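If it is no trouble, can you show me the amino acids of a protein and the tokens describing how it folds?
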Amino acid sequence: LCLLYAGTGLLQEVVYLVSQGADPDEIGLMNIDEQLPVLEYPQPGLDIIKELTSPRLIKSHLPYRFLPSDLHNGNSKVIYMARNPKDLVVSYYQFHRSLRTMSYRGTFQEFCRRFMNDKLGYGSWFEHVQEFWEHHMDANVLFLKYEDMHKDLATMVEQLVRFLGVSYDKAQLETMVEHCHQLIDQCCNAEALPVGRGRVGLWKDIFTVSMNEKFDLVYKQKMGKCDLTFDFYL
């Protein structure tokens, strides 16, 4: 089971919560990244991942075509989360600036230009998201949108429950939705995340009018034939 691309940090906690029936306070005390290793990272490595007890929760940002054949063959499940690209590029920029290993010091305008020209890590977002969207009707793929986590969390939790094959009665499901709300509040409030990377509509604080017009043009060119839509305002 892989969690992919946008909103991975928040989604991994929600998926862990739903799949394990865990408590949000319990997640706050653990290193969640140890529970969901990244497929393509050298640490902990594939040998350790292979030794994990099934069902395994594994993260990845890889394009669909580079994922293991088990996923292509329908033998493993994939949860893919896509985020509206304007918020995504702002969050990605702030992430790059926050990491010492990356220490990006360019302007947001330069970073956004690189994003639009497919010059960032993991390649083109436009190709990445469309490649997964082509498989969104596959039985082993659950395609989610980041904005829906804020707009209709209860429906998303119900989708995850069904997809993961876990069982909750009505009262347990309501409790689980409330626990997930707590997680999202903790991840997105001003104290826990000063840069506000989890907000929907983040892009409006940094995009200039000309940047927005240019981005819309590139988006239309690269996504014009795709019927995938996003909420840019909530």
